[in-house]
Amino acid sequence: MASKASIPKGTRDFSPLEVSKRQYIISTIQKHFKTFGFQPIETPTFENSDTLMGKYGEEGDRLIFKILNSGDYLKKANAEAYESKDSVKLSSSISEKALKYDLTVPFARYVVQHQNEIDFPFKRYQIQNVYRADRPQKGRFREFTQCDADVIGSDSLWQEVEFIQLYDTVFSSLKLEGVTIKMNNRKILSGLAEVIGESDKLIDFTVALDKLDKIGEEGVKKEMLEKGISESAIENIKPIFNFTGDFSKKINLLKSLLSNSEIGQKGIEELEFIQKALDQMPLQTARLDLDVTLARGLNYYTGAIFEISAPEEVKMGSIGGGGRYDDLTGIFGLKNMSGVGISFGLDRIYLVLEELNLFPQEIEETTKVLFINFGEEEALYTLKAISKLRTSSISSELYPDTAKMKKQMTYADRRNIPYVVLAGGSEMKEEVYNLKNMKTGEQNKFSLKELVAHFSN
């Protein structure tokens, strides 16, 4: 009995049109990565488990796909862990590799391994698939494509300014107006934890705070209490649950709230530097917003934090994000190597462009002109024209079979091919090609030279 055709939850097949739309987004992002001076690299689909584990926080570690060792993997399994059903200890003895969770940690590993070949500061971009054992839902997949850009080897805040400009440039090029670039600084979060006397619970504090837009104020308070953060401490940070106003107003509120925190004041200074620079270079279509609850829940961010929200009329999670990581390469032995990077969420950007009908119409055209097949001699005659058109980068194809005219025309219509060429015996005698516009029905005869010129203009 044949097995049922299916794919794993959280993964997708892509049709020709979907691939064309994805490539449109990727090529737009890639073009601007290049104009901003980034160089491409690639890293393996899977990494050694110890490269990834412990880099994303407790929640992130649970979402890493582990790969079973080859062969009889249970032979070398930790017997004690197996008997006690300790999955954490057991997995380390039966799985030495894992699918990459993101592109940033593998990039840090790459930098350390290739440090003698790299010119610093190193600006790289990377467009590859990543994998997360997440619960599939709208806009959330287990296999998805990230488009990352990072600069490592510089602690200059001008890099943060450029990344905000890069986000704005890409989304403006995609005609996706009204995007919000949310920004925070990890030093602000450290300062908030410090002033309420909970510095030792910084990670628990920030992970809970980052969920404010998902579970609300009461949900965040409940999670903080469960993590051992006192009620009085939570009461002291109550103002941040309702921060309103523009960027400058929020900065002033933070100055008051963090007046007794040196690290918090440092975070405010960094935010002000970026704000003043962008005041001199206004964004095209995006909006910059200070979101003091933004934490992203990742252990390696140490400075600026970014998260990108789609226009308000679209109900979608973040479509991009990133931040500053001052000591990421230190976990692989390379100290004092500051970096900052951002990521574009291709799959979610796709869904947003689809919902707002922002894909260009020409993306749907996979082939420009289809040649009708009337028989062997006619096919040979049309192939001469097809070769010329292809040499001029005009996508052309011959219907492979001598099927009925209606079937071939229907094929062109369903493929959204805008033109067909009819070349039978009479056209061959005249040495012309009869070109039909599928939308208007208009037909014109062209010589081979004229046909190529018609599509080249």
Description:
With 457 residues, the protein is an alpha+beta fold. It contains 18 helices and 16 strands. It has helices at 16-35, 49-52, 57-62, 79-84, 87-94, 104-113, 158-173, 186-195, 202-209, 212-226, 231-236, 247-257, 262-280, 346-355, 376-391, 405-414, 425-430, 448-456, and strands at 39-40, 46-48, 66-67, 97-99, 122-131, 143-152, 180-185, 287-290, 304-309, 320-325, 339-345, 369-371, 396-398, 419-422, 433-437, 443-446. The strands form three sheets. Strands 1-5-6-11-10-9-7-8 form an eight-stranded mixed beta sheet. A five-stranded mixed beta sheet has the order 13-12-14-15-16. The chain has a three-stranded antiparallel beta sheet with strand order 2-4-3. β12 (369-371), α15 (376-391) and β13 (396-398) form a beta-alpha-beta unit. α1 (16-35) packs antiparallel against α7 (158-173), α1 (16-35) packs across α14 and α8 (186-195) runs antiparallel to α13 (262-280). The chain starts with 15 loop residues before the first helix and ends with a helix. The model has no long low-confidence stretch (mean pLDDT 90).
Low-confidence stretches: none
Sheet with the most strands: spatial strand order: 1-5-6-11-10-9-7-8
What is the number of beta strands?
16
Proportion of helical residues:
40-55%
